[in-house]
Specification:
With 365 residues, the chain is of the alpha+beta class. The protein folds into 2 domains: 255 residues, no CATH class; 92 residues, no CATH class. Helix content is 57%, strand content 17%. It is built from 9 helices and 6 strands, in the order ααααββββββααααα. The chain has a 6-stranded antiparallel beta sheet with strand order 1-2-3-4-5-6, with no helix packed on it. Strand 3 and strand 4 form a beta hairpin. It starts with a helix and ends with a helix. The C terminus is likely disordered. It is a multi-pass membrane protein. Pfam families: LptF_LptG (PF03739). It is found in: Cell inner membrane. This is Lipopolysaccharide export system permease protein LptF.
């Protein structure tokens, strides 16, 4: 009980720390990138937080898998460094007995990763695609780039702005060429803003400007105004074709398409790889003081990269038809499990001693 409480507490604290660091790094990078796009008009300001939320949901299974691997690795490396493992071994605690408290920590997280991989991530992908399609149809002034002519989605309004005022839908020194009800007009204005009526119609409102209106092709009329509104027509948002990662898991299971089956194997492999990698971290954390403390960290990193990249390559080979869909990614998981058994047997001094220990445990039960 003491062994389990100490390990669970340390694993939980390490996992929280690793997850917070990963989220801080990723969120900072995303905030800087997306707010930079909003500052130059490539993305609406009110869409930044929503975009970050969708991206976070899509990446969360990977973040949690990395968190589990690093937290287990850190906990056991610390125990080996402080010679705590030798004390536990002297007290009769075998290496295999550490799997039970680690599994108590891993199982709830694996359930969360499974739910994210099977349901939450595809759902977030579908919402993200619809949201991006709606953003493509917006004609906010905040999406305009200063110094560049922009054609409104309706096609009957072309406007040019010299400067943006802040990050909102306001601009200064605006040029507008519009075609409405058979009448063509050119307007210049000191300021412009965008307003939306209750029925959803959008208007480009110009303040303190002049309108040069064509009368019969040869004559023009000059009109000075304090405020002038031009209606911007919008297109209907169409449902974009679903990406592979956005297809519901049930639909993938019922499909006979090779690409769908490859995606299904990938989603199944996400929680399996998270569990296997976290268990691999237990023997990978052990080190020989004579060989240096950094080598096991390098080897653990290589094992993680090879395992994850093998799953990615295996999925690509399935899509190309070079890997059996019936086998899928299971051979890769099988090799990882065999490596785990080999590493654990090495801690016992060999495979016969490891099998003997398992047999003794089974007989004692």
């Amino acid at each position: 009980m003491l062994q389990r409480r100490i390990l669970l507490r340390e694993l939980t604290m390490n996992a929280l720390g690793v997850l917070l660091v990963l989220l801080s790094i990723v969120l900072t990078i995303q905030f800087v990138r997306l707010f930079g796009q909003a500052a130059v008009g490539k993305l609406a300001l009110d869409a930044v937080l929503t975009t970050i939320a969708f991206q976070l949901l899509q990446a969360l299974p990977v973040f949690l898998s990395i968190t589990l691997f690093i937290s287990v690795l850190m906990s056991f490396m610390r125990a080996w460094r402080d010679h705590e493992m030798h004390v536990w071994f002297a007290a009769g605690v075998s290496p295999l007995s550490w799997f039970r408290p680690v599994l108590w920590f891993l199982v709830p997280m694996i359930v969360v990763i499974t739910a994210l991989s099977f349901w939450m991530t595809p759902w977030a992908m579908r919402l993200s695609e619809k949201f991006e399609a709606q953003l493509q149809l917006r004609d906010d002034l905040g999406l305009a780039t200063p110094g560049v002519f922009k054609v409104a989605r309706g096609g009957d309004v072309v406007y040019f702005i010299e400067n943006l005022v802040g990050l909102g839908n306001k601009a200064s020194r605006v040029f507008v060429d519009s075609q409405q009800e058979g009448s063509r007009g050119v307007m210049v204005s000191a300021y412009a803003s965008q307003t939306t009526e209750k029925n959803g119609d959008k208007f480009l409102s110009l303040d303190k400007g002049q309108r040069y209106e064509e009368i019969n092709g040869l004559e023009y009329r000059l009109i000075s105004f304090d405020r002038y509104s031009v209606r911007i027509k919008a297109k209907e948002a169409l449902d974009p074709p679903a990406a592979m990662r956005a297809i519901p898991t049930k639909q993938l299971y019922q499909s006979n398409n090779i690409s769908d089956k490859a995606e299904l194997h990938w989603r199944i492999g996400v929680p399996i790889s998270a569990l296997v990698l976290a268990l691999l971290a237990i023997p990978l954390a052990s080190f020989n003081p004579r060989s240096g403390r950094g080598w096991n960290l390098v080897i653990a990193l290589l094992v993680y990269l090879v395992y994850v990249n093998s799953l990615t390559i295996g999925q690509a080979l399935m899509v190309k038809g070079k890997l059996s869909v019936a086998l899928g990614l299971w051979p890769i998981h099988g090799v990882a499990i065999l490596i785990l058994i080999w590493l654990m047997a090495k801690m016992y001094g060999g495979l016969p001693a490891f099998i003997s220990h398992l047999t003794q445990k089974e007989e004692s039960v």
